[in-house]
Amino acid sequence: MALFTKSPRVSPYVALIPVLAGVFIAADDQTVVVTVLPQIMQDMKVLVTELDRLSWTVTGYLLGYLAAMPLIGRLSDTWGHRPLFVGSMAGFMVGSVAVALAPNLELLIVARVFQAVGAGALVPISIAIAGDLFPAGRRALPLGLIGASAEAGGVIGPLWGGLIPDYMDRFWASIWSCEVLAGLPGESWLAAAQGWKWVFWINIPLAIVVLLLLGWLLGPSPRRAARVDYAGGVLIAVSLAFLTLGLARIDDIDMLMAAYLLGAGVALWLFVLRQRTFEEPLLPGIMFRAAAFSAANATHLLVGGALIIAMVTIPLMANTVMGLSPLDGGLWLMRLTAAMPVGAVLGGLASQRMNYRIPTFAGLLLTSLGFLLMAQWDLELSDPELTIHLALTGLGFGLLIAPIGLAATESVGEDNRGTAAALITANRMVGMTLGLAALTAWGSGRFVGLVGGFRFPLQLQGETGAQYQERIVQYEAQVEGAGMTVFNEFFVIAIVVCLVALVPVALMDWRRGRPLPT
Asked: Hey, do 1-227 and 288-518 end up sharing a CATH topology, with the first three levels equal?
């Protein structure tokens, strides 16, 4: 029976529907901006030479998504999971409106950060709500469904960004073209809403539906009387923000990058001091006494590093050495990401029947197998091998979502579930940030090292055009071969990361009924 539904007659799975929908919408906005970036560039008059500024529409979202998560997780345990879900969804809506109304790129980036604070909170709070709705022993599948919703939103985002602006422009243009409506004030409003802005405006009615269903189906959640360490929340947010800003400059190492990383270290040190002195710390030390909790966080950090290798390398390989279009690169990646929701549900089902370590081991080994097959790719790659290899890898990543989340949240007390969910989610994002920085720093240097001995062929005296063209083809083949070598090595690194993650998984042993740490 549901623990916190509005009525005993409401199935907890039905009550979970608006929660899943909210997670899906927020995850969609994490990737939807990729498709509409060219339109944003045109409207904001951003030049191609200013792509470093434009990239902050994505980096800023990551920063906001990550930085506030630990504090919001703690707030949800204190104020209640349902009120914080509502508040986070409201913040996401306000951020969406601000993005759509932003008159320039700088304000758009600020709005994206604000939007991401609300969106980033939804996943950990949803995990905590699943704990409210379902008793111990029945939470694995709901966590798998939450993970599947988040991954599905990320998959649909680029497609959503391509379809919605065009469809909505056509729809409203046909409405206001009617003689009866022509000349009404709505025409000027339409001018402010058209194009890429639709993907943000449409969040408002969708979020309202989510909130209405939430109020109808979900009852009050438990609250914990405690003081919230706001200063600690600010310190950890500043540390994570500086870390993100510093690592974002890894391809242009300078004093500013060093200052960001120094700031991250100082803020983290002050946060640790604060945790030792504050009566009720933001991240209670009691959580870390559970080996399963610490092991799950270490595992998720490594999983994030491996995942970002796949997310970046696959479309980049398609667009460079394979000579395919950006659309083709996206379709390659969708073969992997589309399998992740399936794996998430399967991982949830498996976690309800066995020790959490088993599906986690299986997921890491399956992901390692997928990367091993990908490490052997060459220029002759084609289907069905392409799809099989990518789907295996995505399935493996999906299998990891529920058992890692369960190991973290079930091994701590009920009062700390939101905090634990926030930390486990943040660790994957930190892993992705670190992995991307390492990938950028090592990859460019490795490629330069491989092609350093190559010399572009100049036509020799007495050489025919055919002979010269043949040498150019050989040169291009050498460069493509060097690029393929780098990409293959990326996949080998991902294998190593996945295998290293098996070590903390061995400590991720948690069985229902085991006493919580005291």
From this structure: yes
Tokens 């460069």, located at residue: 479
pTM of the complete model beyond 0.85:
no
Summarised one tens digit per residue, pLDDT across range 242-278 is 887 888 777 677 788 889 899 999 999 998 898 888 8
The domain 288-518 is placed in CATH, from the list 3.60.15.10, 2.40.30.10, 3.30.70.930, 1.20.1250.20, at: 1.20.1250.20
Q: Name the CATH superfamily, with its identifier, for domain 1-227.
A: MFS general substrate transporter like domains (1.20.1250.20)
Please give the Cα distance from 499 to 331 (Å, whole number).
Answer: 28
Name the residue with higher pLDDT: 273 or 509.
Answer: 273
Q: Considering Cα of 175, then 181, then 186, then 192, what sign does the dihedral take?
A: positive
Count CA atoms closer than 13 A to 285's CA, side-chain side.
Answer: 9
Dist. CA 89–CA 64, nearest whole Å: 14
DSSP string, 274-328: HHHHSSS-SS-HHHHTSHHHHHHHHHHHHHHHHHHHHHHHHHHHHHTTT---HHH
Domain boundaries of the chain, sorted by first residue: 1-227, 229-281, 288-518
> Could you tell me which residues are beta bridge partners of residue 5?
218
3-state SS, 93-146, equals HHHHHHHHHCCCHHHHHHHHHHHHHHHHHHHHHHHHHHHHHCCCCCCHHHHHHH
Q: Is the pLDDT of residue 491 over 90?
A: yes
CA dihedral 321, 331, 154, 54 (to 10 degrees): 50
- Cα–Cα–Cα angle for 431, 283, 83, nearest 5°? 95
- 275 in Cβ contact with 282 (< 8 Å): yes
Number of neighbours of residue 462 by Cβ within 10 angstroms: 6
